[in-house]
Specification:
DNA-binding transcription factor activity, RNA polymerase II-specific, transcription, 37% helix, single chain, Znf_C2H2_type, two-stranded antiparallel sheet, 193 residues, 5 helices, alpha+beta, transcription regulation, repeat
């Protein structure tokens, strides 16, 4: 008996499109296209605290949280709070360990492309944000803003215990931990009496 060469079977897939056929009159009215409402530009809305203006009520509401300290979005895993839902979403990636943006220069990984872009300026030496008062330059705009607040003495974050004021919320929170330690120390001392 001769060996019969086994030929691979080719699978052919035929795609078909379903077309709805109707007995109705062909000249019947075609469905009307949805029309967009013409949106008239709204007047910029000013913040009643600092006067800064915003194009939408939503943007103004987000901005007001910088004054009120409201942080309505909380991570259910660690309790960290945020002023914006998008910031919480990015934070949640840290619990999953997902860092999709990698630096080609040093291999550092980041959760957001914006963070990678900011990091890459370290390698290029680019510092596009310069202080008008002392000419010091920064890689990030928010660092320039913080630096500028130092010049004008703006310290918007106040410790609830001793009323000491701070440039950033994080520095104020770090300071308030000292009060917590002092309170615990006093409690421990009174407990031994």
């Amino acid at each position: 008996m001769e060996d019969i060469a086994v030929q691979p079977v080719e699978e052919i897939v035929i795609k078909c499109e379903v077309i709805e056929i109707s007995d109705e009159d062909v000249d019947a009215e075609e469905p009307k296209k949805k029309r967009r409402k013409r949106v008239t530009p709204k007047e910029p809305q000013p913040c009643d605290i600092c006067g800064k203006t915003f194009q939408t009520g939503y943007e103004l509401k987000k901005h007001k949280r910088t004054h009120t300290g409201e942080r309505p979005y909380m991570c259910t895993m660690c309790g960290k709070t945020y002023t914006q839902l998008g910031h919480l979403s990015i934070h949640s990636l840290s619990h999953k360990g997902i860092k999709n943006f990698n630096c080609n220069e040093c291999g550092s990984s980041f959760y957001r492309k914006a963070d990678l872009d900011r990091h890459e300026k370290v390698h290029t030496g680019e510092k596009p944000y310069q202080c008008e008062i002392c000419s010091k330059s920064f890689t990030q705009k928010n660092n320039l803003v913080m630096h500028f607040k130092m010049h004008i003495g703006d310290k918007p974050h106040k410790c609830e215990v001793c009323d000491k004021r701070f440039l950033t919320r994080s520095k104020m929170m770090l300071h308030s931990k000292k009060h917590d330690k002092e309170k615990k120390k006093k409690h421990d001392l009174l407990g031994h009496i």
